[in-house]
Amino acid sequence: MNWESFPSPDALSDRAAQLLLDAIRTNPRIVLGLPTGRTPVGMYDRVVRECERAYHCFRDVTTFNLDEYVGVAPASPGSYFAFMKRHLFDRVDLDPANAHLPNGMAADPDAECIRYENEIRNAGGLELTFLGLGRNGHIGFNEPGTPFDARTRVVALTESTRHANADLFPDGHVPTHAITMGIGTILDSKRIVLLVAGSGKEDAVARLRSGEISEAFPASALWKHEDVVVLSV
Ligand code: GLP
Fold it and tell me: Which of 29, 63, 192, 217 has fewest C-beta within 10 Å?
């Protein structure tokens, strides 16, 4: 695991955007795993600015988001699909047909999880996946206790995670469940970049740095992967 520390969230976002853009330049047909949350917003802003200059950045790129809320319509402002449209999809030349998120409104959510796994596989697998870090060490929505070989599935959100994301749902109806790529799905990505910024994550960072590998701390699964970069403030 390679660690890079930055003096500010802006500096972290610069570096994250550089890694993403370099990867697209190296392989314009890359398959990316992408996160939501506050942390990657600066990265997306920088990528968009750069892609306005070099317009065809995303023409042949395929993306798979890590997760989506169950029971939240894509058009609803709190959905991760709406987040991605706002911060990236509507601002670059990514083909909407190549931008994938789990469908949180699927009539059969378990079948949707299998379909999503197959879709990733049929696209050739994830080449580079960006992750954020939850305060309790979650990655995607894989909460503490998740087996490291878990695949894409429906999960119940912990109260602390619902609380942390409540401001996206001003009506107070914070979702209780999500569909998330599993830790096993994430670990199958050839390369992984973990972005860590935001208040209240000091304990999570210290625990990750300690090198202890435990299912009680989902991000520690990343120690099992041979190509992980952690960018932290
Ligand atoms: C949510 C997302 C995670 C994200 C986490 C941290 O729970 N499902 O993928 O990493 O929030 O978010 P933030 O970057 O806002 O701290």
Answer: 29
